[in-house]
Amino acid sequence: MAHTFPELIIGGVLLAPFVTYLVVTFVIIIVLRPLLPVIGFAKMFSHAAIAELSLGATILGLLMLLF
Amino acid sequence: MVATTAEQPFTVAKIPVSSWSFAIRVWLATILALFVSFWLQLEAPTTSALTVAILAEPTRGQTLEKAAFRLLATVIGVTASIAITGVFSQARDLILAAFAVWLGICVFAAKLLDGYRAYAAVLSGYTVGLIAVQQIDHPQHVFESGMARGAAITVGILSIAVVNTLIFPSDRQPGMLAQLAAIHRRVREYARAAFHREPANSAAFLTLLREIVALRPAIASVALESSSGSVRSAAARSAAVALVAELQAARLKDDLEREASGWAARELLRRDAEVRQDLAALRSARWPLRVWRAPLHRSYRTAAESGIRAAAWVAIASMFYIWAGWPAASFSLSFVALVTGLGATTPNPRGFTAIGLVGTPVAAVLAGILEFIVLNGADAFPLLAVGLAPFAIGAALLLSSRNFLWSGFGRFNLTLIMVLLAPSNPQTYNPQNFLVTTLLLVVAAALLLAAQTLIPPVSDEKRRMQLLADARGELLKHGHAKGEALEEAMFRDASRIEQFIAVGGAQDSRALAEMLSCFDQSAVLHLCDAKLMQVTDGPLASLAGEARAAIVTRDTATLRAIAPRFREQATQEDSHDADIAACLVLTSNILELGSGAVARRKAT
Known about the structure:
heterodimer, A: two-stranded antiparallel ribbon, 2 strands, 58% helix, elongated, B: 2 domains, two-stranded antiparallel sheet, 1% strand
């Protein structure tokens, strides 16, 4: 079965589904960010910045796969 | 621009390795932004490369903060463009008038803010120039043009964010901790000198004050650096506010009678402990015990004057272009708006325009070499990438210089080379177009400089007088903004002194002395008031009320009379009542000194 993407239409302007995924990822990251220091995320990796970027990419990929 | 560290950095060709890595990051991000824009077939690939050039900041937190503000300001600017075009459709002169007023409002807002917030304010202003004014003859394209710009900016932001994360991520936070700790050490040395009753060193005090306040924008950008950034930023901000309070306490120790000196020493130790706690919180990424804001002094009058002048400059330029009737004048006018806006975020707008006037032909020559000698008809992306390398890296190296002139020159070059080259897919090579664009840019800079000579920017002298009047007015009002802690009010006063020095206040020694006197008086009045507020019941409550009334009327004789009565009640040398007594004596001393300074100033 073909994967259908949710359409986002604002005022008659059709937006690419990718924009929706990007915005949702952004919101999730903003919510998740304050929790990361609590679990000691930065101490788990030698390059915390790259790990955070990878986390963002993972969330984006999962969203596209699951929804 | 670059974090100052104590040890000598490793250098290549006499340029620190951090600058090289910064320049290479900028080049790679430009290439990535252009590649993605071409691949997505965006209408405005140049804007994405320009975004990278504008977001080229030495540390990741700064880049991200500037990016967030750029995105926000673009949304505001595009909305304003649509509104202005919609309201004044078919009326060219009214659109231009509305644009000048809007830019004036944005400059007004920028003058009340600092760091990237100020940049966002002016960007909202000149975005209207880039969208509504450039499409003045085709208003139906404003929406599309706004969307194209938004998409290109998003690609640019993502490119530089990814490149900055993957390659040599540089954080501001360790440098920030070192800087704050170094300032703390120097504040303690200053306090030690005051304790040993060495002559008051007001130059050292002012240097320290300026350094602390200057850290404010950098502290804000630490928040976006990592997931623990917001905690560290709060800790650093609290440390900076506490440092100002400690510095003030050390200053109070300068001229003291014996009876108040014990209390002042305890006060200094308390402040020192606060700073140490905040620095420890910053080191271990914990929330500080008290989270303080770092408010900025806002001079509404000066901001309004700057806004009106900016609107006038753009109006003069618009009138000139209408009169000249050139076909591509809208492009030139948007450059006038851009330089006016960005100049408003620098201490010297006219100097900034002058750099623009000199920098534009230099950038044009460089872009011409790149377009017509190096690339000369090439249409393959790798060739563009290689060709761009020396120009992007060279300009970014200049940009990372600590010299204001060189770094401004580098920023101009980096952005203007992109504007003039206008990378597109397929690339067009049109010498006539290139020459016309260059000419329009030079004319814009020259025209703005002429307008700024006709109506000069607000003079330093006037700004100094305004700051002094603000300081006096606030002291008379007595009482700080609602919900503002004593320490926060002190930081705001410190930021006013910093602004005063920045407009050449150091030369005007009498005004500077009065500024400092206002700072001392305001601090000690608030401190004393806070202490008296704590006495709410018991036999001394009515006495405390009397003392507070005497503070409002600046009645030093009554304050001196009340002080011994508090001391009589004190059970121990270091009890709260003894502290109040010492504080009252100190307040009356400083008030008398302050009124003496005012009287001397009036006499001359």
